[in-house]
Amino acid sequence: MLGLAIYAERTENVAARDAARRAAEVFLSRNLFLGRHSGRVMNKEFVLLHYPLYYSYDVLGGLKAMAEIGRIRDPRCRKALDLLESKRLPAGGWPAEQRLYRVSSGVEARTDSVDWGGTSKTTPNEWVTADALHVLKAAGRA
């Protein structure tokens, strides 16, 4: 979706623009994290904040994508934005609630040689916080 949207913007390619819009509709029709018919959380991982996401998905990643393609103010982002705001820590900032990698000096699947700030339910992660503030500002909520 992001690649198609950027390509369409730079080349004015109508087919790519339409494909990006259709892809956005898949996410928006599910409020970025809810089952379209059940209204329940599709996957518990979607409502946890991670950094970095790599090839995975969470609600903040979905919101970032909507901000980048200019769809963050779509009313169907409201529940995801509310969820994000609810995760703000009392002292400010947002936590990385779960890690998708382990720090390692060797080459293994799902490892990284960088520590991206760790995970904690009570301590803000600077990367997650920067992304959350960017999204909320783009949505007119900051």
Task: Describe the model.
- The chain has 142 residues and is mainly alpha-helical.
- It has one domain (2-138).
- It is built from five helices and two strands.
- The protein has helices at residues 2-11, 14-28, 59-68, 78-86, 126-138; strands at 102-103, 111-112.
- Helix 1 (2-11) runs antiparallel to helix 2 and helix 3 (59-68) crosses helix 5.
- The longest helix is centred in the first third of the chain and has 15 residues, at 14-28.
Please provide a brief summary of the model.
The chain has 142 residues and is mostly helical. The protein is built from 5 helices and 2 strands.
Topology of this protein?
Elements: H1 2-11, H2 14-28, H3 59-68, H4 78-86, E1 102-103, E2 111-112, H5 126-138
Parallel strand pairs: 1-2
Question: How much strand content do the residues show?
Answer: under 5%
Q: Rounded to an integer, what's the Rg over CA atoms?
A: 16 Å
Give the tally of structural domains: 1
- Mean of the pLDDT scores? 91
Order of secondary-structure elements: HHHHEEH
Please give a handful of descriptors for the protein shown.
142 residues, mainly alpha, 5 helices, 2 strands
